[in-house]
Amino acid sequence: MPNGRGTGLYIKALVYGLFDENTSDPKVRARLKAEAEARGIEYLHERLSRMDPATAARLHPNDSYRILRALEVVATTGQAISVHHQKHGFLERPLRF
């Protein structure tokens, strides 16, 4: 798949894994969810646009799961999720078994 989503994404994740860094933090996720409830997911999408324009451009402004995840990665690693994806080379690897 050219965009790396869907079934191809799951197969690639099984074969190559996802990027290695620990990017999950339940406290950060809870804070972001509370902020989304208080201010709206569109507000967080705008913030993501400033922090990671490449990811924000490919996400629908109502895609709360992916917006929260992208902001969580920035908060826990200090780098945009698009940078992690680029370093991993996930989309460029062909499926070879």
Q: Can you tell me about this structure?
A:
- It is a single chain.
- This protein has about 100 residues and is mainly α.
- It has six helices and no strands.
- Helices cover about 65% and strands about 0% of the residues.
- The two termini are about 15 Å apart.
The tally of helices reads 6
Uncertain runs with pLDDT below 50, 5 residues or more? none
Terminal residue distance: 16 Å
**Approximate strand percentage:** under 5%
Structural class by sheet pairing and helices: mainly alpha
Order of helices and strands: HHHHHH
The Cα radius of gyration reads 14 Å
Total number of β-strand segments?
A: 0
Report the biggest beta sheet as strand number plus sense, adding barrel if it closes. Answer: none
Can you describe this structure in just a few lines?
The chain has 97 residues and is mainly α.
List the helices and strands and how they pair.
Elements: H1 7-16, H2 26-39, H3 41-51, H4 53-58, H5 64-77, H6 81-88
What distinguishing features does this structure have?
97 residues; mainly alpha; 6 helices; 65% helix; globular
